[in-house]
Specification:
Four copies of one chain form a homotetramer. Chain A is of the alpha/beta class. Chain A folds into two domains: 6-126, 3-Layer(aba) Sandwich (Rossmann fold); 151-300, Dihydrodipicolinate Reductase, domain 2, CATH 3.30.360. Chain A contains eleven helices and 13 strands. Chain A has helices spanning 16-26, 46-49, 83-91, 108-115, 122-125, 137-142, 151-165, 193-196, 210-218, 246-255, 302-316, and strands at 6-11, 31-37, 72-75, 95-98, 128-130, 145-147, 169-179, 201-202, 222-229, 235-243, 263-265, 281-287, 291-298. In chain A, the strands form two sheets. In chain A, strands 8-9-7-10-13-12-11 form a seven-stranded mixed beta sheet. In chain A, strands 2-1-3-4-6-5 form a six-stranded parallel beta sheet, with helices on both faces. The radius of gyration of chain A is 19 Å and the shape is globular. The two termini of chain A are 32 Å apart. At the A-B interface, strand 7, strand 8, strand 9, strand 10 and strand 13 of A face strand 7, strand 8, strand 9, strand 10 and strand 13 of B.
């Protein structure tokens, strides 16, 4: 095959997002897995730790010098934990796709207030590109550091950004529901099977950290309420707003992503199962006179995390967006 | 035992709501199951059709004259299907608790428009009492015909009625999520396990029939969006509204049901599993300056249907509200 | 009410089995909750810890002297943890129903080998009565100490004991499947929602501790393989065996529990949902020439734990077996 | 791309197995989707019927002459429904992979007895090759007609065939558990969400049609009991047997598939989630003196149906077995 073989590192491959990047890269036609790290599993073979991932690679750690020989490194660590490493990699001319919140905010103070930490590398904030693929493809292509968007944020921005840019909407409420993998790999009774199964709850009302990220990108305040669904994967966001011109708004939604392989308006209201295990986002809308409702669905670990990260890699390296990414959802 | 033994009939015991009434009455300390009907299972023993319900009673049909010898008959049929029978029973001085929508509306025209049918017995609409137990206990006590409220409606009215009566809120949006038993016993691919499991969707946006019922009872318009949860039982409603005085509103919510065994304000946001398989409604609230959010949970088949129906029976016959009704949720 | 009011204590009410005893006793017509203990929640009100259990009682601890004023105490602690307390209570003439494995074995050495511990109170082993309600009602009635059987064990013994006593079967294999609540309240990734949901596995092959308990009670070796079901509650055991006379065996199964309210042979193969949230055991059988297969279902937390424990209390105190115990399964 | 572009037809793409073949072929690097048929959806675009499958192809029907221009046609219809078409395609020199039971049996009478039908084309039975990929790769490579094995059968044969061929085992019992997609796309209350969720049952005891298929291929009788799991995808089979030499048996299992990409012995007991959404089969074994237990897992719709079918296509056309087939399981 004559396509470029991108050398890939993954830091934090034990977490769900990192493990999904690993899975995608392992079967990517133009990428090659060079290094995977996990503090918890250092020195063990991936296939011995995760029978689901039959890779013979051995987990390394964050200090592995091979990371600096990669073409691109995915960093999938909790906020601030990967920040120093991200800086070193950038300094070593390795391109980085960071799945944490560290570099998502234009406004560093807003980041610090939202996450209640000092920003580890404010100097890098200015070179980071926000990796909402369909919104910023050119910038992403040239980026040294891509900040992969939050999962809830992606489900809301994709339909709402075009409406906000067109100046058609106000007073936005996003009522979002996420599968439990969004909480990450957990040893916690709150995420135990017997607690989550046959249950449903709201959480983080008025306080969830994805609200400021949405607001900054939309340029508008937003009221955001997340809920925990008893399913493994998927987000559905029901977004309510006041609309000045429903016809125009519908037209904006129908046409905004005409040439995009992964993002589509559908006449029918979309369901999570239509996008689970794919990198797609589907949305639809309904309008009364002054009110609009958008329903949007993604797979939180793919378009909401690992899939969008790989799509960002594809864009950075001049590949088709769809390379190595699933479009069709299983039964 | 010296307590009154109420002779009970159940029409439509094959449906989920009817089957739950059957289950509750079978172990009710002051009621006695006299007649159960099911067109589908006429002539069969309940225990042979439903191994889960070990009753030796034989399913009868709607024409069974024993129905007129009951003290009270629960009618759990689709709208209009039980209306003629309800009339006959009322004429025969049998008290009726109707679980359909037929007698829920004060405004008969609104009913006809909402359900797209001619009202079968508009003459009875005026004697029917809306059976939201905690709101209308006195009227229910004396009622000959009780119209049991809709499941979504109950989850919204219990917290929102006191706020509306106090004139504190406007611009209400109810984003509700229901377990699949709310759709009833179904042979339909849309409700098959492989369709619903690991899935989630919105439906009936701007068009669900429970919205007019909510509006009429609240005396205000409401934007209502239902969603289908991949669980068997339970409703969680997230209700957004503008509030004129948050402190007053919180106080109203905290005190409205102080003496009620089944309805409670909780400081923590309630989860469906805390009320599943019980007749309770729990709710909590959060406020910003001008916005309020209420989260409310019920079991759709108990407080949202069969449980509230039995509670209505208890009130009609002067028993404690809690007689024969579960307060404690299982693990 | 003139029925006896049994004063009840529950030790270990935080665990799933203890919480279910609490739930059952709270609505039991002839029992009164006096003391509930939980090390984890000492000093807190039950309703504040568990919104699902609206009891105003305050959690006490194991040293609470009120325990010795109870008529009966349910001890729901891990093996050996409650043994000293059980001894003290027995010495104080309080009757005890122990839900652990401590007193289940006739053969103390077998217990010690199986659980790899020294028996805490071998002197009490001889007075303990094995509480398989339908098998030992008279002994249980007079018992000071009842050892509540294991959940898997109950599902297998109820159908297989009569067959073994009749000398009709040999070469028994029990392939059992349990809901996840059988593992108890857990903060462990192995029991997290994302691990268990949409998954299924065998575990403890050739090594599970319920096998020796089954063998001792059946008087025969048994090959037992447990599996973990992605459901909250219920056990289904598929039991394979060689049979000498299939007709006789079927007759034994059909008649063994003719007068029992909770245990029944059914012609159709039983499903877990027919017994979930009830205290029943249903089983059926199929035979070829020399082989038999029994399928048996229970709710692991009720007939397999808390429900059988309360049934034992009912027997001990001369009440109907069914007092306070659910017979009808919800939808 | 220089790799061969195989022109593919799919008959019965509405069913779950057919839809999964469609999904796999749509992203297969060396295949091209030419025709898809569905009686139910004739004339509609795939993407309009199934938002999860964004293919612009229009559903055709079984009479579409383009089927005869395909290099290979997957026929995913109920038994006998596709038999005439299979004959026509073979006569037209189109290679066929049949996912029904029609051509699985060497013994046509056994087929007719098992399925209670007259064999539609007994003349073709002799040219059909049984498509258990790892067992018959050479024959499959040259086959004109491949009979894709049953899902349960695959889970049992892969570990048990080597043991049977080595003459090491007897008295086999397979206790198998399958996800609900195994029952196909259904509008049937028995497969509704509220019936299947939180439930588990055995069915087809002594009568399931996969038992004769297993027996014929193993050359031995087998006692087979299937069960219905409340999950979408996956089969776990727990297989019990008498063993003459446990060490030899273990060695056979460890080495039988050394060079196979999809089939592996694992030391740990395998779980369904390790193979869901992949084409793999994992198994492990435990032995006592005379008894052995194998636990085996597959995805019923992939290695148990569509995945094995595509693997058969890969073998027929000289591609790598793994082309277009997933090896890594998602979180």
């Amino acid at each position: 095959m004559t396509s470029p073989n991108i050398k890939v590192g993954i830091v934090g491959a034990n977490g769900y997002a990192g493990a999904e990047v690993l899975r995608l890269i392992a079967s990517h036609p133009s990428a090659e897995l060079s290094v995977v790290t996990s503090r918890a599993h250092f020195g063990k073979r991936v296939c011995d730790v995760f029978p689901a991932l039959p890779s013979p690679l051995v987990f390394s750690d964050m200090n592995d010098p091979s990371l600096k020989k990669c073409d691109v490194v995915f960093v999938a660590l909790p906020q601030t934990a990967g920040a120093a490493l991200v800086g070193e990699l950038i300094d070593a001319n390795v391109r980085v796709i960071d799945l944490s919140a560290d570099y998502r905010f234009d406004d560093v103070e807003l980041y610090e207030k939202t996450y209640n930490v000092a920003h580890p590398r404010p100097d890098l904030a200015s070179i980071a590109v926000y990796g909402l693929c369909e919104a910023d493809r050119d910038k992403i292509h040239n980026a040294r550091l891509v900040a992969n968007p939050g999962c809830y944020v992606t489900s809301v921005l994709l339909p709402m950004l075009p409406l906000c840019k067109a100046g058609l909407v106000s007073d936005i409420i996003a009522d979002s529901k996420s599968g439990t993998s969004g909480a990450g790999r957990k040893s916690d009774e709150a995420y135990s099977f017997c607690t989550v199964d046959e249950n449903f709850k709201a959480y983080g009302v008025f306080t969830h950290r994805h609200a400021p990220e949405m607001s900054e990108k939309l340029g508008k305040p937003i009221l955001f309420t997340p809920h925990l669904l008893p399913i493994k994967r998927g987000i559905l966001s029901t977004v309510y707003f006041d609309v000045t011109d429903a016809d125009k708004a519908l037209n904006v939604l129908r046409t905004a992503y005409n040439n995009e392989p992964f993002v589509s308006y559908t006449d029918a209201l979309p369901e999570i199962s239509s996008v689970a295990y794919t990198n797609r986002c589907l949305f639809s809308a309904r309008f009364s006179e002054k009110r609009g409702i958008v329903v949007s669905v993604i797979d939180n670990l793919l378009k909401g995390a690992a899939g969008q990260a790989v799509q960002n890699m594809n864009i950075m390296f001049g590949l088709n967006d769809t390379a190595g990414l699933p479009l069709y959802a299983p039964v």
